Structures are given as structure tokens and as C-alpha cells.
Amino acid sequence: HFSLPAWIPITFELTVLFAAVGMVLTFCYLCQLAPFLKKHHFHLRATDDLFVMAIECTDTTNDAEVQAFLQNAGATEINVQHAETGWWIGTYDKEQKLYRDEKGY
After folding, report:
1. What is the DSSP string of 34-71?
2. What confidence tens digit (pLDDT) does each residue in 50-94 have?
3. Which of 44, 59, 82, 103 has the highest Cβ tally under 10 A?
């Protein structure tokens, strides 16, 4: 006896379950939200008593001009950090630092 109609609801529910789990895992991968990964923080006090503003600068951006603008706007601290191109695409090395400041940290 072939009972295909009995497996149709089960197959549908498993498809929905695996699609939902796959979407959650993909979201966590792309946003790098895995709890076992060591993350680099822009600033240790960020979200405690200050906020961090990240500005992407390209080759045509005048870094000194941007820093002067931020200083004139009342910035209390300006920290320049450099990111590798495409840093968010699957960089899951536990020891790799995604951003390095001027001192190489």
C-alpha cells in the first residue's frame, strides 16, 4: 500500500520548518551574530555612555576634511579605523580583527 496522501501535510510542515530555520541561520551568518565568535568593538564604552558613528571613506574622500567637520560639530573623540574590503562576507576567523586602528590593534 502506498500512502502518499498521508505524507503531504508532514512534508509541507517540514518544508516550512527547514525554511524558517535556514532563514534564521542565514541571518545570523550574514550579520555575524554567532555567540561563539569574538567580535571587535569600535569603542569599549559604546552604548554605555556614548555612541559610535561609523563613516565610510573611499579613495576620493578627504579624511582630514571629514575629521575637521566632526571636530567642529562637537565630536569629543575621533578614532580612525580601517576595514578590509568586504569585511562582512563570511569573515569568521576567531582571532581575526576586522578593524585595525592606526597602531595596528
Report:
1. -TTSPPPPS-TTBTTTB--------TTS-HHHHHHHHH
2. 778 878 777 787 888 888 999 999 988 888 876 665 555 445 444
3. 82
Residue 82 in 3-state DSSP?
A: strand
As a whole number of angstroms, the distance between CA 99 and CA 42 comes to 8
Whether 35 contacts 29, CB under 8 Å: no
| C-alpha pair distances (Å), 81 with each of 3, 98, 102 | 62, 10, 7
Cβ(10)–Cβ(67) under 8 Å? no
Q: What is the pLDDT of residues 63-73, one digit of tens each?
A: 888 889 999 99
Q: Where are the domains of the chain?
A: 1-31, 37-105
- Reference 92, options 42, 26, 34, 43; nearest CA is 34
